[in-house]
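Input record (one chain):
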Amino acid sequence: GDLRDDVALERAVRATLDFVLLESLDLDTAAILAEAKAGSRTYGGLLETVMNHIASTWGKARWSDKTPWQAPTVAWELLPDAQVVHIVRDPRDVIASSVEAPWIDERPLDLARAWARFNRRAAREGADAGPSRYHRVRYEDLVNEFFPTPLQW
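The corresponding structure, as predicted from the sequence alone:
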């Protein structure tokens, strides 16, 4: 509904906080609703309000979302000022973990093709947006930078 309407906004806040990954955080619904009423009355504004509240509760200045397979343009439609860090994993690792997921029933070859299409599209969208809004990095390069020698267990 139209989030400029207080009833619709409250319903959207409650539905958002009812999400399985958020309900365990025991968030202050009244505080978030008050912040949402004072903020941008859009779905992107609601997301930003909830995520800023969580970050603030944990003493963090910023927050991030790591939704897999989300195109940069989807993030920018919701949050026009978003900075996208596109972390690209080795496709073999992506496919190996995907075939283990109980909610994915695609064949490995189809997953590999989808991975390639997604990453090509995201790279094009990122190139169009420019370096201030999009940065692409290989997952393996990040790991090697922070853990240059193999971890000893």
